[in-house]
Design brief:
It is a single chain. The protein is 59% helix and 3% strand. The protein has 7 helices and 2 strands, in the order H-H-H-H-H-E-E-H-H. Strands 1-2 form a two-stranded antiparallel ribbon.
């Protein structure tokens, strides 16, 4: 799939933004649906392999989104099982590896906010 120059520019802007700037939006989305920031952290840790201290440090360091995922201790292989649409884009069809991982996190937070059980969100059952 070829993306337009404008889409590529927007994608790069996302990669260059800080993860710390995105994190509050993930938490707010979950909290609006009676979920907690601890659950959001659990989802992020599952996806990235960060422990809680590492996650907090990565947010505090104001790493770019790209650095956040590149420096993740271990991206969970189960992320490849994540399917479905986020903002009209099918996660499984995203070709860029970094964008795919970002979309996976978006999808996980969406599922959390929609009330799915944590075991389902984390692909345990």
């Amino acid at each position: 799939m070829v993306i337009s120059a404008r889409a590529a520019q927007n994608q790069q802007r996302l990669f260059d933004s800080t993860f710390a700037s995105l994190y509050p939006a993930y938490v707010a989305k979950a909290e609006r649906k009676a979920r907690t920031h601890e659950e959001v952290d659990q989802v992020i840790r599952w996806l990235t392999g960060y422990d809680q201290a590492g996650l907090e440090q990565a947010i505090g360091d104001e790493r770019s989104v790209e650095e956040f995922f590149e420096r993740a201790p271990r991206l969970n292989e189960e992320r490849l099982l994540i399917t479905g649409s986020v903002c009209g884009v099918k996660v499984q069809e995203v070709e860029d590896p970094l964008m795919h991982t970002i979309r996976c996190l978006d999808k996980l937070v969406d599922e959390l906010a929609k009330g799915k059980a944590m075991d389902k969100v984390l692909r345990r059952a």
